[in-house]
Structures are given as structure tokens and as C-alpha cells.
Amino acid sequence: MSVRTRFAPSPTGYLHIGGARTALFNWLYARKHGGRFILRIEDTDRERSTTESVNVILEAMVWLGLDYDEGPIYQSERFPRYREVIQQLLDEGKAYHCYCTKEELDEMRQSQMTRKEKPRYDGRCRHRQEPREGVNPVVRFKNPTDGTVVVEDLVRGRVVFQNQELDDLIIARSDGTPTYNLTVVVDDLDMKMTHVIRGDDHLNNTPRQINIMRALGGEPPAYAHVPMILGEDGARLSKRHGAVSVLEYRDQGYLPEALLNYLVRLGWAHGDQEVFTIDEMIEWFDIKDVNKSASTFNPAKLLWLNHHYIMHSDPLHVAHYLRWHLGELGVDPENGGPDPVEVVKAQRERCKTLREMAENSLFFYRDFDHYDEKAAKKNLKLAALEPLRKLYQQFQAIETWQPDALHQVVQETAESLDMKLGKVAQPLRVALSGCAVSPPIDVTLHLLGRDKVLERLAFAIEYIEKNSDSP
RNA sequence: GUCCCCAUCGUCUAGUCGGCCUAGGACACAGCCCUUUCAAGGCUGCGACACGGGUUCGAAUCCCGUUGGGGACGCCA
Fold first, then answer.
1. CB A97 within 8 A of CB A126
2. Which of A57, A257, A314, A392 is the most buried (most CB within 10 A)?
3. Distance, angstroms, CA A280 to C1' B50?
């Protein structure tokens, strides 16, 4: 039987880090086994589901490169099918109408809590014959009252649940719409899923779902419950831990492969290897090797991986993303300035994100409106006047505008003035970039081009002359 | 509270059937080297088997308990 996995988010917000990892694991497993990966949108809760969220999730999937073979399948379009199944269960006596009011249920739970019991529906409507006036009933599944349900989980191992612990869950709301535990079962069966890989938080739902599947005469798929991702305080990862949305990471300048690489190593390892190409992940990933324990999201390591990918990927590839970020900052490299590929080569060691690279490379594409205060104070002072003037002349005269030759000019200028190289290069750097940090000075000169260099040097010389009170 | 799950450096983890573990790697952190800025790079250091009982010639690895953490207990998914 060929492998079929799915990612089934509910569109009530963005695609978050945890969801992305679940999607990745499902995707990897399907790809590894030559199976199919299905995207299903669980939008049965029409109150909370939005098309906006659907779009954001789809956008994130595309950005991550997690392509799906089927879908997106919308549960909201399958209501007739769910209704049919609910009716079938009703007809077969495997489900029943419940007329309990919310107040009644609240009261029941309250008293169970005070008796230190697990709050659960006591099945009081199981044998009700007559409808109750003025109450639209929900439909409840008649869960077995004794025996056990065994989940042979691919990551947890064998987990046994007592049916006594389970109650008769609602499978249709009073307005007739189906609930999660019903739709997920119907779909996993209808769509012939072979492996359900999902978050740990669903482990407790699994025995209920298996019971419904059996009532429907279906065979449950293999389950794999992957551990949760926690925030640095040990609580479940959420917004208050900082960025949790996949698209937020895109916007902050992360490469999708870096995020994927980080995520695959959360709860899974292949010896001591830290960096994986997608092909390596597909080759070595196995759901059976996933850890049981929850892991803490570590932004610093993600950042390191991102930087690693920026430094070691093909500059052409990285430049593609840099262009996007430059665009976000209102710069179109097509309108002049250095080729972004060259900027990547010049900047990659010192920029951990593409956003940072774009910001720190802005001076190549447009004039800055002021110097960094500290940098100017330290470097653009009287002592820099002579070297800068001399450099101006040299740059005017030089024939080949290439890094080697430019480096030589700076070097010789320093020597001729009997100054250390830094004393010449650093003021020059501030004059050109506006701040104290830039790529090596020869590379910066080369990328900026002679015209801009002369223009900014002239401006800096003038600036020093005007502010020459300080020694 | 009840049920379920989990437990190796601060973090992610390696740890094949218990002996090769005086517990390895990576991130972070500290120091040194390199250096025209910032980086990158190189080297060194810091640092863990939660605790208590067993089983065994021998346990991070198996069993039990304790403690700690997480999850579930919705007409949410």
C-alpha cells in the first residue's frame, strides 16, 4: 500500500512553527516513500475560520517549498458527506441525540470537579426516547463503556486507554454542522490516509477517533504523535515567545531551507549532522527516529543556521531572496547600483539575515542622509582630511577600477602619509557607507563605483571642513 | 483534580543487543590567534546522564517509585 500523509491545519490564524514542522514531517515521510502528501483545510468551525488564514497558510507552504500532491481539500465543502455519516451512525444506533443544555452540562462538570473526577459527559441522554421541547439536539457518538483502545504509536510506542475514561463526544453541533473528531475520521478514511503524523496534543483524541473509525467499519491508519515545541520558559510555544509565524521569519530575512533545517532537527537527528540538504532529509528522515520528549525552540540556533546557509549557498540563489528584501525596503537593483549577487558575496559573512543584509547594503543603492553619529565623530575629524583628499586624487586618476588596484591605492596612501592602514581605511569607510561597518574597503569601493565614491568623498571632506573645531 | 505523555550540558541532540562513555557533536557563552571595520575562520575552555531504590560481574541505557515538566479533559481544531 503506498504511503499517504496529510497536513490538516485549521485556518484560524497563520501557519506557525509547530504546524510547519508537522507539515515537514508528513511531507518528508511521503517523499521518502514515494507516497502522496495531501493538504486538507479543517474549516468546519465557520465562526473562526477565515479565507485570509487559508491564504496565509498556502503562501507559507509555497515559501517553504512543501508542495502537496492533492488538495487543498476544504472540509467545509464536504458537509453533505459528513451529514450522511452522522445519519448512518444514528440509524445504526451508534450515535444519539442529546438534549442537554449548556447550563446542565456546566453544572455536571462542576460537580464532577468538586468530586475530583475527570469532567466528562455521563451519557444521560443515551436512552432518552422523547425529544425535549425547544432544544435543538446535538448528536453524540456512543463510545464503548468498557474495554481498552490500544494505540500503536510510531513514536510513542504502545499507549493503552480505558474506554471508561472516554465519554460520548459530540459529532454534530445543534446547528447540524459536524465537529472535528467526526470530520477527521471520515476524511482520514475516505482519503485513505496510511499515516497520521500530528502534534502530541492529539494523542488523547486518538482513542476516540479509533472508536469512531471502528464503528464505521474502517481500519485506522498508523499514528505518529510528535512532541510539542515549547518556548524558552517551558510553556507551549506561542506569540508571547516572539515570532511564531512562518511568514514572519520570511519577512525577517530567513531562508526557507534554514527554517526547514532547523525544524527537522527539533526532535530528530541523524548522528552528529547539523546541516541537511532537502535530499538528505528525505533520504534519512524516518518517523520512527523522532524523539518522544518536547523540545524548546531556540532562536539563536535558527539564526546560526540561517547565517550558515547565507554564507554557503550559491550566491545566485541567495541574491534572489536579497532582491525581495531590497524591494521591501523600496530599492530596485535594476535601477542602478551593484548586482545583488556581488553584494551577497561581499556581505554574507557579516549578515545573519537577509533583512540585515538588505539594510546594511542600502548605501550601495541610495545616498544616506546622515552619518552614524559615533562613526563620524570618531573617524571624520581633522586627521582624516589629508588622507581623504589624497585618496580623492588617487581615485580620480586610477585607470582600472578593480579591487586589487583599489586596495593598492589605499595601502600606498597610508604608507605615503606614514599612517596605519586602519587610519586611512576607516574614515574612507565612513565616508562611503555612512557607518563604521561595511565589506572590506576595496570591495566596497569597487561595488560603489567611481562616481559615487568621488561624490561621497567630496561630501565627507566638506563635512570635516565644516566641523573642524575638533582636533 | 482525573487521564495520557515525557525526563543526557543553558538549548538542540549522539548514545544500535546494558560494557568501546574518564558521556560525543552543534548552538550559546568565555578566552586566545588572525585582522583595514564588522564579521568570517582557527584553537582552547565552561558545561549534563533529575532523585531514590532495585536487576546485573557491569546501567545514561532494563524495572519500580518520587519529583519535575508538558498535554488532554469544549456545541475549538
1. no
2. A57
3. 35
Please state, in angstroms and rounded to a whole number, the distance separating the CA atoms of residues A268 and A285: 8
Return left, alpha or beta for A226; rule: phi > 0 is left, psi -120 to 50 is alpha, else beta. Answer: beta
Nucleotide B75's nearest residue (CA vs C1') is: A173
CA atoms within 13 A on the CB side of A410: 23
Task: Determine whether the distance from the CB of A429 to the nearest atom of strand B is below 7 Å.
Answer: yes
Task: Residue count of chain A, please give it.
Answer: 471
Q: How far is Cα A6 from Cα A70, in angstroms, rounded to an integer? A: 9
- Which residues of A are annotated as catalytic? 239
pTM: 0.94
* Contact yes or no for A446/A403 (Cβ under 8 A): yes
Q: Is A60 buried (19+), middle (13-18) or exposed (0-12) by CB count in 10 A?
A: buried
Confidence at residue A469, expressed as pLDDT on a 0 to 100 scale: 59
What ipTM was predicted for this assembly? 0.94
Distance CA A289, CA A80 (A): 39
User: Which nucleotide does the CA of A352 lie closest to, via C1'?
Assistant: B39
Strand B, nucleotides covered by protein (CB < 7 Å): 1-8, 10-15, 24-28, 36-41, 69-77
Instruction: State phi, psi for A160 to the nearest 5 degrees.
Output: -110, 130
Cell triple for A72 = 487543498
Radius of gyration of chain A (CA): 31
Q: Whole-angstrom Cα distance, residue A188 to residue A247?
A: 28
State whether the beta carbon of A243 lies below 7 angstroms from any atom of strand B.
no
For cell 493538504, the residue is A39
